Amino acid sequence: MSTLETHPDLARLGDQLEAAAERSLVSGRRRRIGRAGLAVVVLTVIAAGTAVATGVFTPRQVAAGLPAGTLIFGGTHPTCALDADGVTYHCTLATAPSDLGITDFRGSKQLIAIDKKIAGGCVGQDEAGLGWDCYVGAEAVRHEILTEDLLGEPELEPAQG
Questions:
Q1: Exposure check for the chain: N or C terminus, fewer CB within 10 A?
Q2: Percent share of the chain, pLDDT over 90
Q3: Do the Cβ atoms of 77 and 94 come closer than 8 Å?
Q4: Complete DSSP assignment for 40-83
């Protein structure tokens, strides 16, 4: 007669330990998979936020960001070029912006939205509103176009003025 046959409590305890160990292993795998998935999501969000904060965008993205950020740029067909300073995008509009009551665009500050997030802003350089100097990320904050807490915020449709 074996020890397990004489001690059924010991056999039951062994079965319970085995089941607990199996649950622990399965649970650990799920946590690792869940943590890995969460890490990917966090890194994606951080990367998007970092791009907005640092201003890593092409002139084409900035040009597309004008009408996406502010209603007055709709239908203006902007083109932008990055200045030699590496932070200023000089943007030119093919047609004047809709004025919405603005008669002189010099010094006017407007938002840029890239990938449906506020990424920076532009400052009007001439009365007609055809020339704009634009900045993304921290440079837009430094030029007092917007506040830092606005960077990366959702911009689902262009702002008015």
A1: N
A2: 55
A3: yes
A4: HHHHHHHHHHHHHHHT---HHHHHHHHHHHBGGGTT--EEEEE-
Query: Which tokens sit at 96?
Result: 């004047």
Extract the tokens encoding 63. 């040009």
CA-wise closest residue to 63 among 92, 83, 87? 92
| pLDDT tens sequence across 115-154 | 999 999 999 999 999 999 999 999 999 999 999 999 999 9
CA distance 29 to 50: 31
Helices (H) and strands (E) in the chain, counts: 4, 5
Amino acid identity at 7: H
Q: Provide φ and ψ at 9, rounded to 5°.
A: -65, -35
User: Which residues, other chains included, contact 10 with Cβ-Cβ below 8 Å and sequence gap of 6+?
Assistant: 3, 4
Strand order in the sheet with 109-114: 78-82, 89-93, 131-136, 117-124, 109-114
Residue type, 126: D
